[in-house]
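User: Can you predict the 3D structure of Cytochrome P450 3199A1? Sequence below.
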Amino acid sequence: MLEMPSLNFLTENFILSSTTFIVVLTLYWYIHVLYSRRNGPPGPLGLPVLGYLPFLGRKPFLTFDKLKDKYGPIFSLKLGGRNAVVFNSYEAFYEAFVKNADAFISRPKDMHINVLNSEQSNVVYESGVPWKEHRKLIVGTMKDIGVGSTGFESIILTEVQNFLNDIEKYNLNRPVDISPLIKRISTNVMNLALLGKCLNYDDPIFEIVDKYITHYVDNSALIPILSFFPWLRHFPGISWCLNQKELEKCLEKLNKRLNEEIEKSNQSSINAIVHAYLDKINNPTNGSESIFTNDSFLSNLRVLYITGVETTAGSMKWILKYLAAYPDVQRKIQEELDRVIGHDRHPTMADKLRTPYTEATLLELQRLVPLVSINVPHSNTSACKIGNYTIAEDSFIIGNIWAVHHDKEHWGDPDNFRPERFLDENGRIVNTGHLIPFFHGKRQCLGEGLAKMEVYLLTASLLMHFNILKPYDDKPMDLSSHYTTTLAPVELQIRLVKRAI
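Assistant: Sure. Here are the predicted structure tokens for Cytochrome P450 3199A1:
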């Protein structure tokens, strides 16, 4: 009679087989990773399946900056199943995104997984001909409507005056958070550029855009994970994690409100993005009807609201916090504004060249706390040599703007707040070549001109009328940050004191 194997025997064999399988799988993983890098950049190995994802931390740009010290300015790593290459120097940025722009201009496939499948047909996430056509239309329209011109500027200055008037309604004897006012004026500037007019502050679009951006930011931690492991989106509970039902409601409300304004576009103050798109949709040429659709039109409006409002509002928060923390810098700016502009008129963009210390301070804050510390990932359509390494085709390309802006070899003391680094001995602006807060190359931020104008006019106007103080005299200013879609200050608490002028 045959004797049945004991339970202990079966358990031991199962453990041995499982261990052998895991060891073989792990060895295969590491051999595969090392083989794939035979002509490419070096880098950390990470873990099987997960790659280096568990070690990135809450601020991946800092992790990449530390890895640069060990592996050099160009290194590779695995992010899930993706082969990623990280550029950490200005030289690598320039060689890839400027000299070899056509090879590195695409976005990775499935880079941005959206459960609604509604946010990929736009100028941020598209590649190829659709991206070129959408970008050409938006950039051309921005120039045509005169972003930076006196006409456009005068409308923004009206909004700035409303902003200043609303600040005075606050109780200025205690710390305040004026973030809602900053978001409101940023949203209305985008209304002007996109819809051709500013809207009344009680218009529901302000609340809808704010909620939409909040949903977008709240999902920012999970969506990259879905990009590296797209099969996870089929798991039960993912829609709940992404708060999909609320996002759908918000998206429906935003589309409805935008369509209402599109129907009234003939009442706009200026020609804007909405008019350019309607012309393309209503008068298609050479197959453009497949590119300029109602869905892509709305998707581009939504993504421009997100990028325009979130980045400009974030920049203003950092400016206010640093000026409160560094009163000597603030005082120098005010002295310059008083001397050049006086107190009888608004600042204009024509004053920008005549107020170099103000401009140097804004440049220094763009360098020190870059809102977009890591650029939106790229992908290369062909193998290309960058530096001493061959970058394999279809790599996941990450540009670490933080590392470029904190490169000790170029900046010397990159962690110090020092506006004077951008001024020569004659007080003229210099040393801006390695400053890339709006990225570099053909995908450089298309709203750069609008953002610079808005930030300068807001900052100069505020400092002409108010002193910005720390919330509490006996405590240092909190300059800590958190990273989601942008590098944002933890909170904005300041005191505003009306200047005696």
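The radius of gyration is 25 Å. The first helix runs from residue 7 to 36.
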